[in-house]
Amino acid sequence: MMRRGLPRRRGPRLVVVGAVIAVLAVTVVPAGAATAATGTHLLSVPAAIARVDQIPCAEAKAPTSGVSVPVAVVRRGLARVVLIGVCIDGAGPFPFALDTGSSLSLIGPALSTHLHLPATGAPLFLGVLGCNPTPHKRVQLHSWSAGGFVLTPQTLAAGRLGSPGQGLHFYGLLGSDVLARFGAIHINYANQTLSVASSEGPPFTGGAPPPGSSAVSAFDAAVHPRVDVAALVFSEQGRVVAIVNVLVRGRQTPFIVDTGAAYVAANSSLASQAGLRVVRTEELSDVNCHAHIPIYRGGGWRLGRFVLPEEQILGATVGSEPLGLLGSPVLSRYGAFVLDYRSGRLLLGPS
């Protein structure tokens, strides 16, 4: 395998929201046990790598509606990390994190350098944990695939990636800029599969859902929803983010739908609005500076009919207005979910 010998990097994870670039570190493990997703068989790291390796790069095909490809679900603390095998220029598969909360797809610098990917265009300035933004180059992918789905050529940002725990490493993030091109995605944590609603379209540009989109589509009906809520999907300069409203102390508050977030997270404005109590802080380091991340205790908030249990909530440096991250402990709770970018809908429930 071509990933043999690649250096392993650890660090905070980027969360890109429209024009605002912020960070959630996923290396913090809170106290307390998590409730496993319904029917989910969680894999060891070696088993997860073997699962995402099972489709050779040469066998990748154009995606079609409803066809499922394998992903691997690994537990780290409360998190359910979803990995997918990505092939680039015939090399791989390399494990990438499937991350709806990352509005831009990223590739780690080790893999980018290893594959000699050509830089293109002006660099992106990305800030980490409130540190001064630093330039990250854009690299061109001419031939690539994910989970056996052939993808159109695209530019990705090359930058440092996080790791949700010791022993688990991935080489990139497959974000909403790519996933939204398929209209809707269905992640089945129980069966460890990814399905897409359609063949890959052009870059998602957002806009109002089409007339009649309030009806559940045949693809969305793959989930028997216990939670069915509207999602607002925004696009800016190629970046895509999906947001749902969570009822916090009587106020509808935006939360990013984020499979890459290990926990439910809240920025300082939301923590103040919700009266969250800091139970401790974690010191996290990056190359250029240090930061202290608050860990709160809270819950009882409502996402449709679902009441978020009281648990530890991670502080996140995301925006200035109240904003949260709806992480994998919620999204995996019923075993599967559909995020419909085109129709603006999030459905949680067993398949």
Overall geometry comes to globular
Counting DSSP H or I runs of 4 or more residues, the number of helices is 5
Poorly predicted ranges: 1-38
Strand arrangement, major sheet: 3-16-15-27-28-17-18-19-26-20-25-22-21
Main sheet makeup: 13 strands, mixed
CATH class of the domain at 13-200: Mainly Beta
* Averaged pLDDT: 80
- Amino- and carboxy-terminal Cα gap: 34 Å
* SS-derived structural category: mainly beta
Number of strands: 28
How large is the share of residues in beta strands? 35-45%
CATH architecture of the domain at 13-200: Beta Barrel
Please state the CA-atom Rg, rounded to the nearest Å: 19 Å
How is the CATH topology of the domain at 13-200 named? Cathepsin D, subunit A, domain 1
CATH H level, superfamily name of the domain at 13-200: Acid Proteases
Question: In which range does the helix fraction lie?
Answer: under 10%
